[in-house]
């Protein structure tokens, strides 16, 4: 029995040491991601002897997770960058956003859309029907009228300028309702206002009886190719009333962006 007890203690001690080593390695990588560090700086951060810190750094170097620069400081290795890139590439924004879209619909009761720039078109890629839902033009896979939708205008507003100009060059500004923006100059002004306040709106610009508010979703590099919106009938919620949901909309967009790999400055 004594032998078994000693064995159990040994295994337990080994697990503690392993867990501690993993935690220290994670702390080192997080520290190196903010900038190169010397072994002494790492040892001070971890609260361990310099020899221990150096041994951990060497192990990370052997695995490709860290490397030693010519000035003697340690930096993040190519392997962790490669893993991060593969992970981000495998992320599906629709899958990332899905639980957030459902929660947003539960909070507001209105229809929630997710739209994304694909090539030079913006498409609906997900939709959660609201409890007040009626038949709407939108459906998953359908093209968004860029100049006459909250999602379209919001994505365009946050694109880098060269790409935004390419897409704008192909817009015809068809008038769908009396509130549709039909001039290029007025549209540019609208996009500037969206960038300034951080969210967009559709004031019955495609379907007279329907309005929405929209917010951008940032990818890991900060770029915007996706946006979400809350959409409803004017008789259910006039635009000024719908805009009371902007804080909840922006929070949801930030939550999706964070899960999609974005970190605000």
Walkthrough of the structure:
With 265 residues, the chain is an alpha+beta fold. 49% of the residues lie in helices and 17% in strands. The protein has ten helices and seven strands. The strands form two sheets. Strands 4-3-7-6-5 form a five-stranded antiparallel β-sheet, with helices on both faces. Helix 2 crosses helix 3 and helix 6 packs across helix 8. The chain is elongated, with a radius of gyration of 25 Å.
Summary keywords:
two-stranded antiparallel sheet; 10 helices; 265 residues; 49% helix; alpha+beta; disordered N terminus
Strand order of the largest sheet: 4-3-7-6-5
Q: What proportion of the residues is helical, as a percent range?
A: 40-55%
Mean pLDDT: 87
Put simply, the count of helices is 10
Shape: elongated
What oligomeric state do these chains adopt?
single chain
Rg over CA atoms, rounded to whole Å, is 25 Å
The share of residues in extended strands comes to 15-25%
The CA-CA distance between the termini, in Å, is 58 Å
What class would the helix/strand composition place it in? alpha+beta
Number of strands: 7
Biggest sheet, open or closed, and with what strands and sense?
Answer: 5 strands, antiparallel
